[in-house]
Amino acid sequence: MDFSYADVRAAKISLPPTPMWSYPVLNAAVGATVHVKHENVQPIGAFKIRGALNLLATSPGRGIVTYSTGNHAQAMAYASHQYDTPCTVVMPQAASPTKIAAVRAWGATVVLAGANLGESEAHAVELAASTGHRLVSPGDTPELLAGVGTLYDEILTARPNLSAIVVPVGSGTGAAAASVVAAELAPTCEIIGVQSASSPAAHDSWRSASLVTRPNQTRVEGLATGRGYELPQQIMCKLMSDFVLVPDDRIVEAQRMLASAAHTLAEGAGAAALAAVLEFPERFAGREIAVVCSGGNASPAELALIASQAN
Ligand SMILES: *Cc1c(COP(=O)(O)O)cnc(C)c1O
């Protein structure tokens, strides 16, 4: 396995630790002591900044090519800007103008190519080959896992006695890193991954211990992936305690609860961990756990959904 706790300890991320708070109203509503780890307050509004900063620290100056529709794109753009390194992000032709603008605002070049992320990836591969820039996979890149692992190092250093950490999963970098850190610092702490039932590729890959593709229909962007990624799956397969699925509507309910009980704006992926607690209350009753609020970049459509009464 190409990744260990030592890599997390060696990660260079130059960011202050994010807060982790517990909210009595939230605890009463879910029947457990829940610590919310606030990655939504990062400069780009999501934990992915950690992986990107560590990657750029290890290869500054060398141009980067990557592909993404969301927070990975912003994270790579931000970190490349910090390290004065050229960065090109390939996004699907139909990517949202808000996201394109956010990536360009950090000085990255956006190339619109492909009808979906798979086609954007193929274009990024060609671009990297022709420019000699480094192709960065959002899932299969050890430097990203190492940087992201610092999040779990912060959680378990602050609260070594947690009985579980619930982690939202897309490609699996976060859950894989969490599993490695917990194995080292808190072997009895369960790491529980959560994905949307409408995009179960990572979940089904984990259950079958193979890399599978699945329909990718969730409206929750950070959890939307159509395939399993090899490096995180290898690690999760060996070390992660459990993996659950939640419906998209439960995620909206959790977003509303974070807004009302924790004065927190979470994007769908940022509320997925709490959604798992709401979906399986008996499993978490009376326990002391952490949920990772992985990001706060809610789209205008998500904001409208949070504010509306209907799902
Ligand atoms: C990317 C992302 C996830 C999923 O993380 P992976 O490491 O890809 O599994 C969860 N939440 C947010 C906000 C994200 O941006």
Structural class by sheet pairing and helices: alpha/beta
Average predicted local confidence, pLDDT:
95
Number of strands: 10
User: How many H/I helices?
Assistant: 14
Any idea what the radius of gyration is? 18 Å
Tally of distinct domains: 2
Which small molecules are bound? Answer: pyridoxal-5'-phosphate
Stretches where pLDDT is under 50 for at least 5 consecutive residues are none
- Largest β-sheet summary: 6 strands, mixed
Cofactor: pyridoxal 5'-phosphate
InterPro entries: Ser/Thr_Dehydratase, TrpB-like_PALP, TrpB-like_PALP_sf
Protein name: Pyridoxal-phosphate dependent enzyme
Keywords: Lyase, Pyridoxal phosphate
Structure, explained:
Strand 3, helix 4 and strand 4 form a beta-alpha-beta unit. The chain is an alpha/beta fold. The chain is globular. 47% of the residues lie in helices and 15% in strands. It folds into two domains: 5-47 and 142-308, Rossmann fold, CATH 3.40.50; 49-136, 3-Layer(aba) Sandwich (Rossmann fold), CATH 3.40.50.1100. Strands 1-2-10-7-8-9 form a six-stranded mixed beta sheet, with helices on both faces. It has a four-stranded parallel beta sheet with strand order 5-4-3-6, sandwiched between helices. The mean pLDDT is 95. The chain has helices spanning 5-10, 24-30, 48-58, 71-82, 97-105, 117-131, 142-158, 173-185, 201-208, 230-239, 248-261, 268-279, 281-284, 300-307; strands at 20-22, 33-38, 64-67, 87-91, 109-112, 134-136, 164-168, 190-196, 242-246, 288-293. Helix 3 crosses helix 7 (142-158) and helix 4 runs parallel beside helix 5 (97-105). The structure holds pyridoxal-5'-phosphate. Residues 46, 48, 70-71, 168-175, 222, 267, 269-270, 294-295 line the site of pyridoxal-5'-phosphate (PLP).
